[in-house]
Amino acid sequence: MISHIECMNLTRNFKGDGTQTIALKDVNLSFNKGEFTAIIGPSGSGKSTLLSLLGTLDKPSEGTIMYDNEEVLRQSKNKIADFRFEEIGFIFQQFHLLPTLTALENVMTPLFSRKVPYNKLERAKEVLGQVGLSDKLNSLPSQLSGGQQQRVAIARAIVHKPSWLLADEPTGNLDTETGERIYDLLKELHVQENCGVLFVTHDPALAAKANRIITMKDGSVLSDKLLEHVGATL
Ligand SMILES: Nc1ncnc2c1ncn2[C@@H]1O[C@H](COP(=O)(O)OP(=O)(O)O)[C@@H](O)[C@H]1O
Ligand SMILES: [Mg+2]
């Protein structure tokens, strides 16, 4: 279980036909599992790129990421995939549920072809219960509201017991009230499951409820504030 992530001089360039976009520029940040962190900043400021790198879905052009004291991205593809399975849960704005699978089947997808020390079906039911969807196990995504679909996606993100949840605008497609409930659920999981949470948001009210707010601009960290208020958990 990784409890600390450290980014050192992280740069990510995207090269096109004669053009280059610097998505992240010399970013230095460290994260502890006890934090519930909001990442804010205008569109194109590098938030998604940062989450992809932290979640080992992408590799930096320059710089390193240490997970505890291991440089995971230097390992083989299979090892990186194993690491991601053990440590990271992703949640996206667009839910990314498979439309022909039921809620229960969607939640089980990360476990396919994985050996785990628990019963997969029981575990999937358990996490759907945790997100309040025990009565929707056999529903297709099209039969669920946006908030319910995001709950299925969250259940899928935690089914393999990751130690970090990375959520890229998880409330971006939801109305304010539903978004707040999803936020509360992430906070609950942070405490109950002891998951480090990093979430990108455009909503200043949600960001203000986190323990820490990182503001990005043009691929750099503009500010990094620790907040001490009732929202602080661990
Ligand atoms: N795969 C990619 N190929 C080319 N450019 C990219 C790619 N991903 C991101 N970018 C560029 O990198 C910059 C940062 O993007 P992104 O991390 O998605 O920002 P944010 O999530 O803050 O909106 C943007 O200019 C974007 O166009
Ligand atoms: Mg983004």
Give a verbal description of the structure.
With 234 residues, this protein is α/β, with parallel strands linked by helices. 30% of the residues lie in helices and 27% in strands. The chain has seven helices and nine strands. The strands form two sheets. The chain has a six-stranded mixed beta sheet, with helices on both faces. The protein has a three-stranded antiparallel beta sheet with strand order 2-1-4, with helices on one face. A hairpin with a 2-residue loop joins β8 (212-217) and β9. α5 runs parallel beside α6 (176-192). The mean pLDDT is 95. The protein binds adenosine-5'-diphosphate and magnesium ion. Residues 47-48, 168 line the site of magnesium ion (MG).
Q: What is the helical fraction, as a range of percent? A: 25-40%
Rg from alpha-carbon coordinates:
17 Å
Strand order of the largest sheet: 5-6-7-3-8-9
Q: Mean pLDDT, rounded to whole units?
A: 95
Class by helix and strand content? alpha/beta
List ligands, each type once.
adenosine-5'-diphosphate, magnesium ion
| Main sheet record | 6 strands, mixed
Per DSSP E runs of 2 or more residues, the count of β-strands stands at 9
Quick one: overall form?
Answer: globular
* Number of helical regions: 7
List low-confidence stretches: none
Strand % is: 25-35%
